[in-house]
Amino acid sequence: MFHLKCTKLARREFLQRNVMAGFASAALSRLAVCDEKERPSLFKAAEFNHIALDTPKRNQAIEFYEQNFGMTNISHGRTVRDTFLHFEKGFMNLGEASNAGINHFCLGIEKFDRDTVFRTLNVIGLNPFLMGGNNLHIYDPDGLNVQIQEIGHGYARMAPSDLTQSKAGVFETMKIHCLSLTVTDVARSRDFYAELFGLKVDGEQTSDHCLMRVGSGYLELKKGQKAGMIFFGLALPDFETTHVIEKLKTSGIDGVAESTGSVLLKDSSGIQVRLDAFVSS
């Protein structure tokens, strides 16, 4: 356990010192002749494939998302740490831990080939690693764990009958719509996700805040002293704020509030969740 912790910290320190330098020297030199607005990225992210959350109350969290958001628990044969809650265009991975928060998130990229991506990430000094034997991960400049997979990983091959359950949820979840993160350097994180995954800035940006498109959703970067998750967002069909708020309050859910046309709430572990209308990618 001590060795693993030290290895993780070493990776984070390496990335914080060298990630953008690595891009500049290894990956972006070949792009120097391109116009800034036309400069291609190494990969093209098209979706939030899934998000993995840590929770000290896994059973309560499973019940919360099943009953309120119609997610289907599919074990995939694993029984130790992971619980997979599926919906139409993605899934959540719940793991037992002492503190609630984000464990990692996964971006689905176009033309994914694990071995090729792994080699490319090694060349530019991002030290990719495998979790669970086959799942490709990196750390971003703040040490946040990012998984990289093909579009539709874990859900595209499922038949509609796989996602049924005996009792429908209060709402139906379609996909993960957004993820809001605190980062220690907004410009550095913006460049990382733009150059590596092709995410484009949406709207005005400042030194403290930036929105980037991920398919029809977005990644929000906000400056903070410590990197972590502020909230993640689920997309629902037939979304109308007043109706959604009424149903959530009737279900006894905490922290329900409207925010610029979206609805915020807290799950059973105190993690903030944002609800928005479903828009297909």
Residue share in helix: 10-25%
The radius of gyration computed from the alpha-carbon positions, rounded to a whole number of angstroms, is 19 Å
State the shape. globular
Unreliable sequence segments: 1-17, 19-36
Number of strands: 16
Major beta-sheet overview = 8 strands, mixed
DSSP helix count? Answer: 5
Structural class given helices, strands, pairing? alpha+beta
Distance N to C terminus: 41 Å
Q: List the strand order in the largest sheet.
A: 2-3-4-1-5-8-7-6
Strand content: 25-35%
Average pLDDT: 86
> What is the H-and-E element order?
HEHEEEEHEEEEHEEEEHEEE
Q: Helices and strands in order, then pairings?
A:
Elements: H1 2-27, E1 45-55, H2 58-69, E2 72-73, E3 82-87, E4 90-96, E5 101-109, H3 114-123, E6 129-131, E7 135-139, E8 145-150, E9 175-183, H4 186-197, E10 200-201, E11 209-214, E12 217-223, E13 228-236, H5 241-250, E14 257-259, E15 262-266, E16 272-277
Parallel strand pairs: 1-4, 5-8, 9-12, 13-16
Antiparallel strand pairs: 1-5, 2-3, 3-4, 6-7, 7-8, 9-13, 10-11, 11-12, 14-15, 15-16
Explain what the structure shows.
It is a single chain. The chain is 25% helix and 34% strand. Strand 14 (257-259) and strand 15 (262-266) form a beta hairpin. Strands 2-3-4-1-5-8-7-6 form an eight-stranded mixed beta sheet. The chain has an eight-stranded mixed beta sheet with strand order 10-11-12-9-13-16-15-14, covered by helices on one side. The protein is an alpha+beta fold. The protein is globular.
Concise summary:
By secondary structure, the protein is of the alpha+beta class. 25% of the residues lie in helices and 34% in strands.
